[in-house]
Amino acid sequence: MTMIVFSGTVDRLFPVGVLASGGVAQGMDVDIFLTFWGLEAFTKKKLASIPKIGKDYEAIGGMVMQAMQMKHVPSWYETLKKAKEIGNVKVHACAMTYDLMSMKKEDLADIVDDVIGVGEFMDMAKDAKVNLFI
Amino acid sequence: MTMIVFSGTVDRLFPVGVLASGGVAQGMDVDIFLTFWGLEAFTKKKLASIPKIGKDYEAIGGMVMQAMQMKHVPSWYETLKKAKEIGNVKVHACAMTYDLMSMKKEDLADIVDDVIGVGEFMDMAKDAKVNLFI
Amino acid sequence: MTMIVFSGTVDRLFPVGVLASGGVAQGMDVDIFLTFWGLEAFTKKKLASIPKIGKDYEAIGGMVMQAMQMKHVPSWYETLKKAKEIGNVKVHACAMTYDLMSMKKEDLADIVDDVIGVGEFMDMAKDAKVNLFI
Hints:
The structure is a homotrimer.
Chain A: E1 2-5, H1 10-25, E2 30-34, H2 37-41, H3 44-47, H4 58-70, H5 76-86, E3 89-94, H6 95-100, E4 114-116, H7 118-126, E5 131-133
Parallel strand pairs in A: 1-2, 1-5, 2-3, 3-4
Helix pairs in contact in A: 1-5
């Protein structure tokens, strides 16, 4: 399966971790392509900052985040990291966004495997059973 | 076909009903997985409240909603209900979100069939011809 | 491959152009279905107006758009137009949205090929290797 992670709000990153876990549980290889705000969310700087909820859901968002803390739900990053430890999960940074945002390798979270172009990613998506744009 | 319904704004719920109808018209089985704000949108409480448009489209959103009323376009919920009456449409609640939001069966709209885990859903998606994240 | 373009903010339209280019580079046919704010974004009127960034990313959005201008990154529309010149890219307007917004053929950008129903689109998606909802 593949996921194009375009979004950078914490509510949309959560499904990335959970769906990767679900994919791994079903024995699938998981390829994640980080682009735009999705790539920014995987920078060390952003990971160290306070996570933001999508503005459409601000009203209820705080309550849900509080419930997560109370129920000791692991963060999306921890969930994704665990999926990567258990199964074949690869995290790719979009070369175009990487250049556009003038990033360096050391800016990116440890979970990121490499920087690839959109053509290379589409080649993976072509052969995948499930493709999602998040 | 499968749809992961993550979003809870009325403009994004509309395509859920319409695409389910389109899928049914093409003879496809439709499995819908409600998660996060998508599951919240399918609670009786939320369905009884005033629908909200995505903040990115507030400027034009009101006009479009007004056009819908004038042209007697059925609501997204009615559209989905009709698709379910005509074809094989199943609506699943995400177990994790269900637990996180401390929901009970009676909180959910009648259209919801069951509560399942992400692994079970990914097993359906694996065999589907079309998978969408909305 | 197919893409359902629901969104109308410039940050989400950018991937439409780039992914179409990637698909064409991999020898795929690309069918794009414009619906809701996605169809509105493809009107001549909207294309002539100042592009808007998703509200979730306004803080960093301005910086990224500036970087795009400085690095002479072509617009999403130019990128999509180029993909259409190189490969088999078809741009379809959603009939329901078209009627709902009381559009006329001359309102739409030149890149739009035709107006089709959701059933016809789902028939294309059924046979595609990659389907995305943007």
